[in-house]
């Protein structure tokens, strides 16, 4: 494995553990795709640092278990914002 890839794997992993970050947050922070982050931390990391790999796995499993809550919160904020702006909650607009 090339040195820059190995360094990226370690940087991504440390970021995820330190910030309790999601794959999406890590991808955005480092400017790589979610697929790259996932491959780095699930396939490459165990061959580099098994202890760090276990810590990352714990964080990602916790994030996965909580994602339905975050999704619900995002939806609630979306409709709350629409309500405050006076927009309708949903449905189709009638075109005359």
Automatic annotation (TrEMBL):
Keyword annotations of the record: DNA-binding, Transcription, Transcription regulation
InterPro entries in UniProt: Spore_III_D (IPR014208), Tscrpt_reg_HTH_DeoR_CS (IPR018356)
Gene Ontology MF annotations: DNA binding; DNA-binding transcription factor activity
Basic and acidic residues: compositionally biased ranges: 67-90
Keyword Cell cycle: no
Region annotation (Disordered) ranges: 67-96
Top-level taxon: Bacteria
NCBIfam families in the record: spore_III_D
Protein name according to UniProt: Sporulation transcriptional regulator SpoIIID
Taxonomic source organism: Capillibacterium thermochitinicola
Lineage: Bacteria, Bacillati, Bacillota, Capillibacterium
């Amino acid at each position: 494995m090339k040195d820059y890839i190995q360094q990226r794997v370690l940087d991504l992993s440390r970021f995820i553990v330190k910030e309790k970050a999601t794959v999406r947050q890590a991808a955005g922070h480092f400017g790589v795709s979610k697929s790259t982050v996932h491959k780095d931390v699930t396939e490459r990391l165990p061959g580099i640092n098994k202890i760090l790999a276990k810590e990352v796995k714990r964080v990602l499993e916790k994030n996965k278990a909580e994602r339905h809550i975050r999704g619900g919160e995002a939806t609630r904020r979306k409709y709350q914002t629409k309500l405050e702006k006076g927009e309708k909650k949903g449905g189709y607009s009638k075109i005359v």
